[in-house]
Amino acid sequence: MSFFNTLFRTILDFIIPPICPICKKHILSPHGLCAECFSKIHFISRPFCDICGRPFEFDIPEETRCGSCCKKNPLYTKARSAFIYDSFSSKLILPFKHADHLELTPLLTNLLYQAGFDLFKETDLIICVPLHRFRYIKRKYNQADILAKALAQKTDIPYHPHILTRQRATVSQGHMKATERKRNVAGAFAIKNKATIQGKTILLIDDVFTTGATINECAKILLKNGATKVFVLTLARVIKVS
Ligand SMILES: [Zn+2]
Ligand SMILES: [Zn+2]
After folding, report:
1. Count of CB atoms within 10 A of residue 22's CB?
2. What are the CA-CA distances from residue 217 to residues 51, 97, 230 (Å)?
């Protein structure tokens, strides 16, 4: 950062001191969390399932799969998430997703960057899970697109926002069980520019990994249309779905 940028930032921080986006306490530098809120977020670290990234309670050898991945054999190669989705971390996700709090983008992008670091060297292309156009019109932006674009800038990996499209509107999955979610998203996606993904390793970005039904459906169509491998990176991960 140049001298003038640093000076400008210092003056700006003096006039409008940065605040923690969760508890609104003043913090030292912008785009962060206060120490207390940071300690309440359950960040995901090893040991975790090598495929879906689900954290394990006990130390296990690397490359071990969880029971669910052994049974279902996901189509994506690896999924990683920054933190566990719970009532506390939802205070970061929900304002970003539904309430136009796009000022959270730098913080959330940094968290994504750290969680996905091991995936970037193999990634050729970043894409995002699309919203159906009706939902896009209602929300005005797609939170996954905002994150994917910012992550592409940070990693210098090309981003193609219009590869995957939703060809039909799906019902909101908030309270659905795993099998209902799978049925809800079956055949929901289409590929727009097949040539772009030929032989490529794709990194798919979304905000929350819930049951994996949506990302698995995306991986299915990407692989069917010529992608070599699909990685997934989300901000948060739901651990238990009833
Ligand atoms: Zn705080
Ligand atoms: Zn797993």
Report:
1. 18
2. 16, 21, 11
- Distance from residue 36's CA to the centre of ligand 1 (Å): 6
Judge whether 95 and 101 are in contact, CB under 8 Å: yes
Kindly give the distance from the C-alpha atom of residue 101 to the centroid of ligand 2, in angstroms, as a whole number: 31
- Distance CA(242)–CA(240), nearest Å, equals 6
User: What is the CA(156)–ligand 1 centre distance, in A?
Assistant: 31
Q: For the domain 42-237, what is the CATH code?
A: 3.40.50.2020
Strand, helix or coil for residue 140: coil
User: By C-alpha distance, which of 184, 183, 193 is closest to 227?
Assistant: 193
Interval 103-153: pLDDT, tens: 999 999 999 999 999 999 999 999 999 987 677 777 778 899 999 999 999
Whole-number Å distance, alpha carbon 120 to ligand 2 midpoint, is 20
How far does the centroid of ligand 2 lie from the alpha carbon of residue 227, in Å?
Answer: 22
pTM (2 d.p.): 0.89
Closest ligand to the CA of 40: 1
Closest-lying ligand to the alpha carbon of 41? 1
Of all ligands present, the nearest one to the C-alpha of 56 is 2
Neighbouring-strand partners of residue 229:
201
CB contact set of 55 (below 8 Å; sequence gap of 6+): 44, 45, 47, 48, 84, 239
Q: What tens digit of pLDDT does each residue of 172-212 get?
A: 666 677 777 777 777 889 999 899 999 999 999 999 999 89
State the span(s) of the chain assigned CATH 3.40.50.2020. Answer: 42-237
